[in-house]
Write a structure and sequence with these properties.
By secondary structure, the protein is an alpha+beta fold. It is 42% helix and 23% strand. Strand 1 and strand 2 form a beta hairpin.
Length: 196
């Protein structure tokens, strides 16, 4: 059963409100008890302040994630430019491709990295991430690069028993067949390199 409120768990002691959330079984009470002590009239103000601080921290974390992704994009591009001999990395023959699979990266983080990559000219980014239950994909291209990212995404998501879509320049999706993520990106890469 879920947590229940014990009668008398909310009480006032010396002008402070004590709020307790206790589980039904005695051994869990000590571990699941949440206590907030403040004056009754101060409670709404403190809750509002905590919510606002959380929003600020979330915004700041998102800003820092974007900065980190720009740095990571530079490193990935530098690495790809260092090799030569194929369409992936030779700027003379067209766009450069960055195809990479990450572990445990969120969809938002993949999108931030893709946007940082395609801020550069002639870039195609095929990015994926996996955890134990989900495979995530973000495909994107610079305005001057070729390829339909939406079409590539639909095919990749079919392979992952999932769904996704977007626009010709950027698409997102995913699926539950995590073990096929690398294969799906490889197929998308070959589709892009040899369009029908």
């Amino acid at each position: 059963m879920g947590a229940r409120q014990r009668p008398g768990a909310n009480s006032v002691h010396g002008g402070h409100t004590r709020v307790g959330r206790l589980s039904q079984s005695e051994p869990h009470r000590a571990r699941s008890s949440v206590v907030i002590q403040c004056g009754r009239e101060d409670s709404p103000v403190l809750v509002a302040k905590t919510v606002e601080e959380n929003k600020k921290l979330t915004r700041r974390m998102s800003e820092l994630e974007e900065v980190a992704c720009r740095v990571e994009a530079e490193q990935l591009l530098r690495y790809r430019t260092g090799s030569s001999g194929d369409r992936e990395s030779d700027e003379a023959t067209g766009p450069r491709m960055i195809a990479k699979v990450f572990d445990g990266r969120s969809a938002d983080s993949l999108k931030h990295l893709a946007l940082a990559l395609i801020a550069h000219p002639n870039i195609v980014a095929l990015l994926g991430s996996r955890d134990s239950a989900t495979a995530r994909l973000v495909f994107a291209r610079s305005p001057d690069a070729s390829g339909d990212m939406n079409a590539l995404m639909r095919k990749a998501c079919e392979m992952l028993s999932g769904r996704g879509g977007g626009k010709p320049d950027m698409a997102q999706g995913g699926g539950k067949d995590v073990e096929r993520l690398s294969e799906a990106i490889e197929v998308a890469k070959h589709q892009w390199m040899k369009p029908e």
